[in-house]
Amino acid sequence: MGEKEGYRKIIHVDMDAFYASVEQMDNPELKGKPLAVGGGGKRGVVSAASYEARKYGVHSAMSGMAARRNCPELIFVRPRYDRYKEISTTIRKIFFEYTDLVEPLSLDEAYLDVTENKKGNPSATLIAEEIRKKIYDQVGLTASAGISINKFVAKVASDYHKPNGQKTVNPEEVVAFLEGLDVKKFYGVGKVTQAKMYQMGIYTGADLKAKSLEFLTANFGKAGKHYYHIVRGIHHSPVKPNRERKSLAAERTFSENIASEVYMLERLQSIAEELQKRLKKSGVAGRTITLKIKYSDFTIQTRSKTLPYFINDMALLLETAKELLYQEKMKNSVRLLGISLSNLNTANVDKKDKKEIEIIQLKFDF
């Protein structure tokens, strides 16, 4: 990477069809076949799709039924998150061989700042090649990478030669690279924003760059300022090795719509149990409990309550969730319920807070 003084060297590593690739690796009979990780039933949702399935238009967040319509030969497998986490941990150890500035975005992708690195290698491009080879040699899976001067350009670049490829965008190439891209390739521009931009005649980065800051903020609000800067290659967000978790949640989609509050309470108990497990595993507590309700017409409602103390106890989670459930009458039958805990104590819990958490738990031990 032809660096200039003052530029950072950022790598975005993205595993190729991670969940599906793990399943194909662990079960050779699935290799080369259209595969979806998730549920294929009436309420199932695709969590990930193999590249063979993607050729049929199968993608994550698609309903299982729609996926089967697109690809009748589609094979569904249940997700094994413990296995994915195990492999992800191995991959992250490889990242840390090169730098401590690693910002995981999920189990299958992360940013690395290798401006100063443990190998003393001045080439971010060669480091990315090394990392991808090590992942393949140690884990057996392929990864793609994007290399550039900031996180935004690196993330966009990592998708450029997928699967099993990489793209370096040198400092002097950034603006031309972004100008030539379709705006739908810009990380953070979703389908709704893409459609709106297309209606305004904004199809490429060059079209976007031609619009004034005033025009973009008038039409896209605060995001307009963001678009104005990123299309010029300006993105100052550093790689944050300790990304603070904002919330933890658990939710369930039901095979049949539920109209009875008695059944809802039963489901809430199992959801609260699952959430408590996740909280204990993460070693965090929080103060704001939110109940998420998705109705049969797909509208979503949330109801929240903030407590004066931190909790991570199932009894208190359930008690507050019940209170929120009865806060007002249901608008319709319900297809999904979820509980989340935010306002977390992840920002260096002090001794007083830790003691308070212990007291809250002890109150409910009997």
From TrEMBL:
This is DNA polymerase IV. GO terms for molecular function: DNA-directed DNA polymerase activity. Gene3D superfamilies: 3.30.70.270, 3.40.1170.60, 5' to 3' exonuclease, C-terminal subdomain (1.10.150.20), DNA polymerase, Y-family, little finger domain (3.30.1490.100). Its cofactor is Mg(2+). SUPFAM superfamilies: DNA/RNA polymerases, Lesion bypass DNA polymerase (Y-family), little finger domain. Residues 10-190 form the UmuC domain. The keyword Cell inner membrane does not apply. PANTHER family: DNA POLYMERASE KAPPA, DNA REPAIR POLYMERASE UMUC / TRANSFERASE FAMILY MEMBER. InterPro entries: DNA/RNA_pol_sf, DNA_pol_Y-fam_lit_finger_sf, DNA_pol_Y-fam_little_finger, DNA_polymerase-Y, DNApol_IV, PolY_HhH_motif, Rev_trsase/Diguanyl_cyclase, UmuC. It is an enzyme of class 2 (transferase). Poorly processive, error-prone DNA polymerase involved in untargeted mutagenesis. Copies undamaged DNA at stalled replication forks, which arise in vivo from mismatched or misaligned primer ends. These misaligned primers can be extended by PolIV. Exhibits no 3'-5' exonuclease (proofreading) activity. May be involved in translesional synthesis, in conjunction with the beta clamp from PolIII. Belongs to the DNA polymerase type-Y family. Keywords: Cytoplasm, DNA damage, DNA repair, DNA replication, DNA-binding, DNA-directed DNA polymerase, Magnesium, Metal-binding, Mutator protein, Nucleotidyltransferase, Transferase. The record marks 19 as: Substrate discrimination. It catalyses: DNA(n) + a 2'-deoxyribonucleoside 5'-triphosphate = DNA(n+1) + diphosphate. The lineage of its organism: Bacteria, Pseudomonadati, Bacteroidota, Flavobacteriia, Flavobacteriales.
